[in-house]
């Protein structure tokens, strides 16, 4: 009991001595024209951060940071593939349309498509990054396929089904009671016909 009181008293003294009211808190007012929010779509806000100490890095540190980002980009395809077996094929098709100057980017079809593509790019696949539910492709199927073909792209029948059929591979990870966790999940750690049993 005596040790407990000693430790309690010591902790109180340390806590009180760390509270120093003699120095005033200083806040710096940083006002600038920096755009924090780059984009907003669906339930996502894309934010940008300032890195003021970047200019203080040596050239060797900057080269190291560059190589770290390149390693991250190299691992990106692995993440996409693990998230769902058709993600890479779908991403390639989405990138074909997004990056093309031959597509009119002002049409309602393209604007609907663009929101979907941004959601897919943000989540690293066609399933929501938190809920694991597949995104609904609300853009026109015929418009998408004909535009993709005009640009020389293609998409397999099963990848088209994954894109436009909400019931097909509906959840990346399905943890519902009474379902086979492997068979009901779209995640690409196992083949589509592998079961829990």
In terms of topology, how is this protein built?
Layout: H1 2-18, E1 37-41, E2 44-47, H2 59-83, H3 87-98, H4 108-123, H5 141-150, H6 157-164
Antiparallel strand pairs: 1-2
Describe the structure.
There is one protein chain. The chain has 197 residues and is mostly helical. It has a domain at 54-164. 45% of the residues lie in helices and 5% in strands. The protein has helices at residues 2-18, 59-83, 87-98, 108-123, 141-150, 157-164; strands at residues 37-41, 44-47. It has a two-stranded antiparallel sheet with strand order 1-2. β1 and β2 (44-47) form a beta hairpin. The longest helix is centred in the middle third of the chain and has 25 residues, at 59-83. It starts with a helix and ends in a 33-residue tail after the last helix. The relative contact order is 0.10.
């Amino acid at each position: 009991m005596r040790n407990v009181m000693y430790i309690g008293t010591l902790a109180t003294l340390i806590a009180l001595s760390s509270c120093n009211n003699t120095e005033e808190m200083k806040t710096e007012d940083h006002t600038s024209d920096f755009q924090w929010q780059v984009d907003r779509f669906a339930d996502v806000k894309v934010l940008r951060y300032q890195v003021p100490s970047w200019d203080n890095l040596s050239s060797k540190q900057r080269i190291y940071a560059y190589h770290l980002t390149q390693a991250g980009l190299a691992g990106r395809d692995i993440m996409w593939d693990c998230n769902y077996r058709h993600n890479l094929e779908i991403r390639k098709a989405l990138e074909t349309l997004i990056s093309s100057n031959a597509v009119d980017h002002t049409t309602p079809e393209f604007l609907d498509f663009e929101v979907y593509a941004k959601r897919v790019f943000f989540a690293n696949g066609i399933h929501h990054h938190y809920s694991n539910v597949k995104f609904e492709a609300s853009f026109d199927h015929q418009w998408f396929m004909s535009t993709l073909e005009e640009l020389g792209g293609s998409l397999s029948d099963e990848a088209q089904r994954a894109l436009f059929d909400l019931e097909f591979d509906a959840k990346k990870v399905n943890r519902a009671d009474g379902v086979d966790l492997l068979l009901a999940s779209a995640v690409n750690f196992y083949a589509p016909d592998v079961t829990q049993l």
